[in-house]
Amino acid sequence: xxxxxxxxxxxxxxxxxxxxxxxxxxxxxxxxxxxxxxxxxxxxxxxxxxxxxxxxxxxxxxxxxxxxxxxxxxxxxxxxxxxxxxxxxxxxxxxxxxxxxxxxxxxxxxxxxxxxxxxxxxxxxxxxxxxxxxxxxxxxxxxxxxxxxxxxxxxxxxxxxxxxxxxxxxxxxxxxxxxxxxxxxxxxxxxxxxxxxxxxxxxxxxxxxxxxxxxxxxxxxxxxxxxxxxxxxxxxxxxxxxxxxxxxxxxxxxxxxxxxxxxxxxxxxxxxxxxxxxxxxxxxxxxxxxxxxxxxxxxxxxxxxxxxxxxxxxxxxxxxxxxxxxxxxxxxxxxxxxxxxxxxxxxxxxxxxxxxxxxxxxxxxxxxxxxxxxxxxxxxxxxxxxxxxxxxxxxxxxxxxxxxxxxxxxxxxxxxxxxxxxxxxxxxxxxxxxxxxxxxxxxxxxxx
Length: 448
Known about the structure:
Distance between the termini: 39 Å
Number of helices: 6
Oligomer: single chain
Strand order of the largest sheet: 1-19-20-18-17-16
């Protein structure tokens, strides 16, 4: 995989409910999951000796073991390579993805009681373990609330045999005790896990240094959950110390939009010697030619956007590379809006940033993947409320319900738009359980 520097350009533009699985964002991670053909997967950390069942252990440090049990009850224990050392592994969890018959494992590796590192691996019954990936970050910072989701989709393009190509992304978020909230996308490619960016992205300062989500010494509530669409996840953070609650939607754009944007960039570079109208026409024609996989009206809009952008921005003496990159960014912005809002909906003014990731595909062909990171909810917490115990997010992260759990009832407040509702109350007891009441509240506020 080839990783680009993740230059981010400004472009305007924890629920209880389970999310969808195959072809979209996976559900929440746990320590046990049911897989294909009746196989179950269970991950745990313990001493190496205990994991393989030869003694009480305690001398060799910790390890991470994956127990795979067939439908007939036959068990096999697989030790994750590299964990059978003198370090200690904590809080392992897994997500199983049926579409590729693969389990993903995440854990915290603590060496010498000081160096904390998050590690990720995948496992397939036929291929075994991938190489263990160490996620970048400060090794001296404690990793808090690590969470991950797996998203699969068809890129929208076909391979050399005409078969639609698929991609598998792992979205990871965690906090560090310094106050940073970090995000890292990882791509599963040919059985290998590759970080899609060189360094984790700080979400707490993504939309400006004055909008830090958390600071040292605070204990915010962090949640990563499936979003409303098949390629979306939502990161929600409640920061009591700062008195704010925020969410960021992370959306993997269709591969066809990335290819169209690449075509606009390539056509500008290839036509650098042309006069301005001819260059703009070439960019438009390239998008029309490549964009047959999209809706005709969408292609027409993107082609017109490319043409007008070149005409408006190709100043005298401007470097072709700069114009080409700017044209690509413009197409990504317009394409993301068309994909999110359709052809008729009003433009959403909430701020977005876009992240271009590049990988090597078939025959060393460079393939682009684009993520949109959008601020979907940003509110000051109501003054005078008791410490919030739980947050229920809407499906798209654009609204939130603040929850307090009493002995016989649940008190809650709903955030819609710029306003918070009055305090509301719903009883639980013999007629309906606490979980049923929370599910009712969450379901009634899935859409804002």
